Structure formats: C-alpha cells, structure tokens
Here is the input.
Amino acid sequence: MNTPGVSYSAEVPLSFRTLLVHVQVSLKITFFLFLGVLGVLVIITPVVASSPERIVSLAPNVTETLYALDLGDRVVAVSRQCNYPREVKKKPRIGDMVNPSLELIMSFKPDVVVLTDDGNPKVIWDRLRELKIFTYVYRPRRLQELPGEIVKLGRVLDVPDKAEKIARHIEATLKFYGERKKGKERKALFILQVNPLVVAGTHTAIDDIFSLLGLKNAAGELPLSYPTLSREKMVSLNPEIIFVGHDSSRQEIMKWKEVRAVQRGYVFQMSESLFRMSPRLMNGIGEMAQFIQSLP
Here is the structure.
C-alpha cells in the first residue's frame, strides 16, 4: 500500500532516497502507534509515587481503610465527615466530602488524593485531575467487592501485603457467616433516614448483608436501590425486624404500632460501622448477626 505523499513505480526499483523516505514514514507511524498504546496503558493503569508519603482522604470509608492499612501517619488531611478512628480527629480538614476545598487540598501538596464515587461528586475528581493532582477512586459498592477494592488500593499505595492480609480476613469472615446455620427467614427492613423515609433496597451492600445472614429484604422487590417510602407503603411491607442507624430515628419508628417489628420490639439501632464500606464493616455484620441470634 502506498504511503501518502510518496510515489512508487511498479516497473522501476525503489531508489535509495525513496526507500529512506518510506522507512522514515514507517518509523514515524510505528512511533505514534506506540505512543497511542502507551497512552491507553497510562489511562488504564494508575501511576503514583512508589510509596506515597502525603495522602488526602475525601471520604470516611476511605479514611478508615487507610488507617486499617497502617497508613494513618501518611494521611495529611481528611474530609469533615471523617471521624474514625479516634486519631483522625486531629487531622486537618479540607471541607465537606461533597464540596471539598480544592485550594486546601493543593496546599497539602498530596502525592495522591483518595476518594469514592459514592459520595464525592465526579466533578470534584475531574477538577483534581485537571489540576494534575493524582487521584485514586476507591469504589466498593457491593459486599463481595470490598476485599478486591482493598487489594487494589493497597497496590496503588505500596502496601500490597497488608492489603492482601485484610482482604483474606474479610473473605474468611464472610465465609463464616455464610456457612453459619440460619434460622427461619425473616423479613427485615433497613431504614437509613426517617424524614423522608429512605430505606436500603436491592443491589446494595445492606441487601447483600441481609442475604448473608439469612434475612429477606422487605424492600428488595422495589425498583430503586435507596427508595423513599410513604409511611403507608412501609406499613404495607410490614417487616418483622427493623434496623436503624440513629437513636432519634428509633424513637420515631417505635410510634408505628401497626408494624410487626414495632409490636414485637424488634427495632435495633446499628452503629455507623455498618454504613461504611471499609474493613470495619465486619464489626457491623457481627452486630447484626448478634441481634438476629438473640431473637426467639
């Protein structure tokens, strides 16, 4: 096939000069193809300093995971919502996780900013990348994704062995609860917020945990992952067990005498460990399992 801009004759052998032009053009094409492939690899594979020393966390579950990886001393700033472990309360804040201060983030000269796509708006990480700040998106959404996401994060932050150890512990914990003898399947509802009434539906980590522990999600057949319900709809679901995250919510729910869970006193307040996709989630699963085991 002729190269654009270079003429060839079928009868006359290529001159040395023509051959040289052909070779130069071929080399250029090969070079640009190589750059194209390299560009794809750079987009797909995160590149960060071999052992990043300055990390900014934009979400509570990210911060908890960083501390579990023994990287707390490298965390230079966190979002306002980050409150665990206790030591993190001393860390400087870069604003709310939904609207962090880009100026503050830059002032800490981070090697990497770790965020989540479940709470940090995409516009934030797009802006960080425009500013040439290396970002890594930690994105466990479902229960079975947690070990793998921790392993990926550990590789990026140069602590692969620690991450593998944590992932194996999580997998062993999930296997333990998965193989545990289940009682009768009870219909349960997880209330995230009372006003408006928001619950955990299908395709959520809570839905996965219910299945793991032998519960049927009362909101599992609704079309949304986090549907907002009327009180009438909630009463029609009539769960046998209700889990809730805040005591004030529990007090409000205990007024709903039409619901079986309220009639029987099966309304349990959960700690925040069940709300965050970090290694501490295993503690929350243990809490829920204890509540279930305590029922007659």
